[in-house]
Amino acid sequence: MTMASLAPALDIAAAGMPQQILSVPMQNKYQCQHCSGVLRKPVQAPCGHRFCAHCHKFLTSSGPKPCEACQTEEIFEAEISILKSSNAFPDNAARREIEGLPASCPSEGCNWKGIVKDYEVQHEGKCKYERIPCKACHLPVLRSELERHSDRECEERTLNCKYCKASFSFRDIKAHDEVCQKFPIQCKDCGKKKIPREKFPEHSRSCGKSKVSCPFSVLGCRTVVENEKQTEHEHSSISEHLRLLLDRLCQIQQLAEDPGEWQEDSGLGLYRAPEEKETPVSGVGQTTSLEQKTTALENIVCVLNREVERSSFTLEAFSRQHRLDQEKIENLANKIRQMERTLTLRDIQLTETEQKVQELEFCTYDGVFVWKITDFARRRQEALAGRSPAMFSPAFFSSKYGYKMCLRLYLNGDGTGRGTHLSLFFVVMKGKYDALLKWPFSQKVTLMLLDQNNREHIIDAFRPDVNSSSFQRPINEMNIASGCPLFCPLAKLAGKSSYLRDDTIFIKAIVDLTGL
Q: In terms of domains, do 34 and 107 share one?
């Protein structure tokens, strides 16, 4: 039975699948007679040949068309070998047979296997090993790498200039940078950076470090100076410039008195035209003309002499002002140095005061001391980096007039505990009342890392070795520290440790006061 049209729900968006997906030999009944691929949503024409629904629609889109397969096989029949959009029907039997065929992904590197139906529904268009042409450069790229290729590697990808916002392809980026009017340029003279190209000519004219020729170069001055020093050069070289000008005027006067011809190569830009050479001039007229020119030159020289005198006075005034300015600068520099010394002394006094206040704040006089250490993570990183391997606690006392002591902590360990343990040491310090105390120090010392759940504190205790220099009467500010290099494994402070809460740990020291 011939159907009037294709079923409305039929998906005809794609042509046949590649033959390479089949794990069985390709047979003619599985092949589209137009695209030669594995039939996708097959339809059958009245002549019996099968086509992909997409291919049949394409073939009949411009009207009825003879079946090329019938012509090739020489079985063309006028009544049934004409393809029309209305005379093909979905071949569900062929579709079910093809969808059940074993298949595998043809993409190199992909291990997917299944049946044709699963390939079409689940894998096709999703395989990360499939190579897809880049829309910009048309090179085949793995699907999994297409986004990275389009964003970072494609030579034809479109970029926007971050300076002028113009669009161009990646391969033209260098060419665009050469002409972009917003592109930042660095001035080689003054070193200023990020000058837009369109404003660089204006900067070059005003740049104080750009090199310019002296305005008197036309008279022979060969000095080339920085733009900001041009005025200074003109002031310091007034005499030289006037000498050059006077030399030039003398040359002009000499030429004026010379009855010979003026030559263009004299360097003065003077030239007598040929008709002037041929014009007869009376001796009296020539003499009068030369006298007038001489008088004019003498007047110019007088004016120049006055200018030299005025410039000399100006230079002398500048010199006096310069000396005064230097004296003021020296006085100000002395005042600044005095203020810096005063500030340094104040800083030292302030530091000492802060230290005393801190000692008073944390100081105890009963031999028991709790040391709160905050910012543990930051301090540990500083210890790992070697910037602050050890830290000292504030001082504490056995009594108001007793032994002065403190703790020394290595957050990354010390000695045998380096890198694996917290190392905690007890330090006897030099106190004001040491002369009244019993030496060597011999009191039992207990060191604790407090469990903030109040359950299992880490405790270590020791009695001082009275023969050790660490417990003799201090000569310097502190004796050599003595204690526990393997006090606490660092592993106990990792994760959700009850010893480390809110980036804070607590260490407690107890000095046995028995016998004091």
A: yes
Res. 43: pLDDT tops 50? yes
Asked if 52 and 42 touch (Cβ cutoff 8 Å), the reply is yes
Nearest to 75 by CA among 42, 44, 49, 43: 49
Retrieve residue 350's tokens: 């302030």
Burial string for 113-145 (b: 16+ CB within 10 Å, else e) reads ebebeebbeebbeebeebeeebeebeeebbeee
- The residue among 53, 88, 123 that closes a domain is 123
**Element spanning 238, H or E:** helix 238-257
Whether 158 is covered by a domain: the verdict is no
Q: Is the pTM of this model over 0.85?
A: no
How many angstroms separate the CA atoms of 481 and 489, rounded?
20
Of 456, 425, 447, 437, nearest in space to 511 by CA: 447
Q: How many whole angstroms separate alpha carbon 296 and alpha carbon 294?
A: 5
Question: What percentage of the chain carries pLDDT values higher than 70?
Answer: 91
Q: What is the pLDDT of residues 393-443, one digit of tens each?
A: 999 999 999 999 999 999 999 999 999 999 999 999 999 999 999 999 999
- Residue 53 CB-density burial (10 A; 0-12 exposed, 13-18 middle, 19+ buried): buried
Q: Decide if 67 is inside a domain.
A: yes
Burial class (CB in 10 A: 0-12, 13-18, 19+), 434: middle
Contacts 24+ apart (CB under 8 A), 448-451: 448/507, 448/508, 448/509, 448/510, 449/422, 449/424, 449/487, 449/488, 449/499, 449/505, 449/506, 449/507, 450/370, 450/499, 450/505, 450/506, 450/507, 450/508, 451/498, 451/499
Q: What is the pLDDT of residue 284?
A: 66
Written as one letter, the residue type at 34 is H
- As a dihedral over the C-alpha atoms of residue 36, residue 40, residue 41, residue 46, rounded to 10 degrees, the angle is 10
The string of pLDDT tens digits covering residues 459-514 is 999 999 999 999 999 999 999 999 999 999 999 998 888 999 999 999 999 999 99
Domain termination residue (choose one: 123, 158, 192): 123
Q: Which residue shows structure tokens 């592993």? A: 491
Same domain, yes or no: 422 and 369: yes
Chain-centroid distance, C-alpha 289:
76
Give yes or no for residue 153 having a pLDDT over 90.
no
The angle formed by the CA atoms of residues 342, 347 and 353, to the nearest 5 degrees, is: 125
Sheet bearing 445-449, strands edge to edge: 368-373, 505-511, 445-449, 458-462
For residue 241, the surrounding DSSP H or E stretch is helix 238-257
pLDDT of the residue at 283: 60
> Mind listing the pLDDT tens digit for each residue in 438-450?
999 999 999 999 9
Please name the residues in contact with 377: beta carbons below 8 A apart, sequence gap of 6 or more: 503
Distance CA 374, CA 501 (A): 10
Domain hosting 308: range is 238-321
Stronger pLDDT, 108 or 437, i.e. the higher one = 437
Among 352, 475, 491, 361, smallest CA distance to 413 is for: 491
Say if CB 509 and CB 371 are below 8 A apart.
yes
